[in-house]
Amino acid sequence: MKIMVVGGGGREHTIVKKLKESPKVDIIYALPGNGGIAAEAICVDIGAKDIPAIVDFAKQKAIDLAVVAPDDPLVLGAVDELEKAGIPCFGPNKSAAIIEGSKVFSKNFMKKYGIPTAKYEFFSDLEKALDYLNDCPYPTVIKADGLALGKGVIIAETAEEGKKALISIMQDKVFGESGNQVVIEEFLEGPEVSVLCFTDGKFISPMVSSMDHKRAHDNDEGPNTGGMGVIAPSPYYTDSIAKQCMEKIFLPTISAMKDENREFKGCLYFGLMLTKSGPKVIEYNCRFGDPETQAVLPLLESDLVDIMLSTREGRLAEQNISFKNAASCCLVMASGGYPEKYEKGKKISLPESLPEDTDIYFAGVKLSDGQLLTSGGRVLGITSVSNDLKSAIDAAYKTAENISFDGAFYRRDIGEKALKACNIGG
Ligand code: AMP
Ligand code: GLY
Predict the structure, then answer these.
(1) Least enclosed by CB within 10 Å: which of 74, 194, 309, 364?
(2) How far is the CA of 273 from the CAs of 76, 169, 183, 314, in angstroms?
(3) Which CATH number covers residue 153?
């Protein structure tokens, strides 16, 4: 089979590597891919949002399966255009991708169908939003309606902070059109869990749960990032919580999407807060998480090509989907200064070989005369898989000692909270 993966980060590298394990795969193209993915796939210089060029390329190569991984092309309708051109796709169409593309849609959707989430109000008028902040409880959470590169959520501790955020989103338009409307919602407390699920729109199959570390620095300090590390499975996600999530959140979500004529096929990501009053949805994503994928997919034992094809063809219920009974840790190495200003073009030095059960997934890197250079904020993720979480974490950190580039930094506490939770029984 000829496969095309749209995207060029650590998530896409992981997807490419897992797809390559399938005996059905002959060749993989990555659009645009990156300097690290180039070791596994043919990278083609077409941007992930350039839908006409993506469709032309897929037709020209007679692609058998297109995997559209990032949110932007999904929300823009890449799957609709590819399918129209006769290219089978993994991923939701535009009408289903709105579940991530618009917070106003997803919040109204959850309210309509009684899916547990934070209480909220939405505003398209700045004055009314500012007024609301005068007497709402704090902290309070402000979210731009549309996609905002994972930066559209502000947790305001005071009215003053909230007002500053509103002005930058709604008046100064720091996230462009995404800030035409905002959601202001209740602050939820509890452990946060990510659950990525395969679904064909009728049947839903949750993958191993995971725990992202979004803040830039140790002890969950510093600004929010795309994610600095992940462990899987999350010890907080017990069997009993998984059952509640299936009954109250996962199944109601896919059946409601069907009722809305927005049948969701692909990977649906539930960002959940396990609150004292039960699990609640913080956000839906219409795609695999990054870096969650780097910790979750290495545990998948089944053939990813088969699973992907069966989500499209509505045969997921017949599919064997199994995960290793093991733990994993993905540690992200970032450029100094990320998520704010950082330098690029630093030489990356790598070990000659990696221990068994450890892999590197490249994100912000490019190849220049055979040398890997940094080209983004999150440069790479080191994933180790082991029988227990502690050894997976130790192995990832050990490998990190042998990787370097100027200004490299990573959190020293990935998985620490999870280990504590394991010790007290979850
Ligand atoms: P999102 O982009 O919606 O995932 O939000 C980014 C991060 O903000 C989440 O991962 C949470 O840690 C935090 N967050 C979002 N919504 C809430 C909420 N209602 N209460 C508390 N934290 C939140
Ligand atoms: N790691 C968070 C996300 O993929 O949205």
Answers:
(1) 309
(2) 28, 25, 18, 30
(3) 3.30.1490.20
